Description:
- Chain A has helices at residues 3-15, 26-32, 36-59, 69-91, 93-99, 110-118, 125-155, 163-166, 191-223, 225-231; strands at residues 157-158, 175-176.
- By secondary structure, chain A is mostly helical.
- Chain A has a two-stranded antiparallel ribbon with strand order 1-2.
- In chain B, helix 1 (17-39) runs antiparallel to helix 11 (216-232).
- The mean pLDDT of chain B is 87.
- Chain B is globular and about 75 Å long.
- The longest helix of chain B is centred in the first third of the chain and has 24 residues, at 41-64.
- Chain B has 16 helices and no strands.
Amino acid sequence: MNTEQQTIIKNGLWTNNVALVQLLGLCPLLAVTSTFINGLGLGIATLITLVLSNTFVSIIRHWTRPEVRIPIFILIIASIVTAIELAMNAWFYELFLILGIFIPLIVTNCSILARAESFASRNPVFDSALDGFMMGMGFLLVLVLLGGLREIIGHGTLFSNAHLMFGPAANDFELSLLGDDYPGFLIAILPPGAFIGLGLLIAGKNSIERYRSKKVVLVSAPSKPAEASAAS
Amino acid sequence: MLFRKAHSPFVNAQTHVHSIMYQVLAALIPGALASIYFFGWGVLFNLIIAAGVCLLSEAAVLKLRSRPIEPALKDGSTLITACLLALALPPLVPWWLTVIASIFAIVVAKQLYGGLGFNLFNPAMVGYVVVMVSFPREMTYWTAPLGVMDQWHSFGDVFNVIFRGTVPAQVSIDSITMATPMDAIKTQVALEQGISSTRQSPVYGPLFGVIAGKGWEWINLLFLAGGLWLIKLKTIDWRIPVSFLLTLLLISNFFAVSDYATYPSALFHLLSGGTMLCAFFIATDPISASTTPRGRWIYGAGIGVLTYSIRTWGGYPDGIAFAVVFMNITVPLLDYYTRPKTYGDLEVD
């Protein structure tokens, strides 16, 4: 794996994370993350869409006229999303009902068009697919993290309704972390909780980065005393 | 014609943040005492918990932000937030609910926005809204006021309810709580029971005083007195309370006259719930309220309309907190469009 691909991975998961840095696709992110499983369901659907759309856009990149590229990208994305929607309708019917309008709306998730336009239409197929996977993974991780946090704080449970995703065998996946008489902090489940939670996640990411950059400065400063004095 | 001449140096009026805040705190005292008198130990517990948690969380966040802690704690603004919150909460809410509301008020609504002077929303009302939305059941834990009951619930009983969640033997939580007059009217009207039959019903009858519910009239009148004193001191501007109360009066009177059986009278709306507390202490918050004269008229009227709408057609018994938080959002826009014209400024359009 060369350095370029390592950059792609790091970009997707952390430095250029779709949800936490680019702040794209916030509508589904805020709307469906009321539980861990809902977040996981939408995250996987978005991930598959991103990988496939990036791959196809990259394959046809030499034959796409720049004047009509946006409609073509949208057509590709829409076909993939329709296929995913039909598949979920067939095999994950209950989850499909819960996620509802947000599955067809993956088409309008700006992160997908953004990746097609800014990455896949200019890069080779494997890199594009990897970029789609990593961007989708970054989005999925945030969805799952936010969904899990909101579920724990709001209901005191984790992995409730896991059977929607993993079949009846997963019925007892549900953990009740905070005890049975936890009154439930309803606002975490309601839309304001999504905004507050996302805000805190972004703040957390930024503070981790600030902490890291401070550490880098502290570590590197003594090793280059000449440069530092020259710069000042 | 003679003008008084004034030469520099001018005398500096010694108004500081803390002097204003302590005036507001002093003006709260009569109404707060009335709340304690009518609702008992629970109000005292709420005040102590809220004040303690608010001061602690303010100090904790300021320490994290490495800002000076002592002046911020001494300026009294945190104590006002704590008092407004505690006076708005029902007297028998569990202790953790007061703690959550206080933390949200100070940490999220005040300090995350940048601290005193930068908060977009009234901290106390944000804390109240958060627990109102999250714990609707616990937020109905009002006791019957003194006058309906013969005496306060004993210190031990209230302590157990609040801190340990246990009710005295042989009774349930429902038998020591009672709907507020506003809540009673709302649910009864929803059941198509008219107001007069609610007032005479065996359950709710004793709850209603002359006008707006036993206890509530006195609490509101004493907050009104404290507020008038603040206006006299020019600590708060008269426009917001006048505009709010006038709007509420006009709307509620309009509906009450149109259908006397369904809509409570204007006096009920003015003297029940948190009307006076809101008019003089919450809506007039110098930070989150509008700052221009015309803006203040609109701001107060907006709170009046929203309060009446939520009380009458909304899902919650009282709508003050939601109305105030909602109008807080509009303040930047209001201030922008109602800037007073500078003297000598030309009309530029």
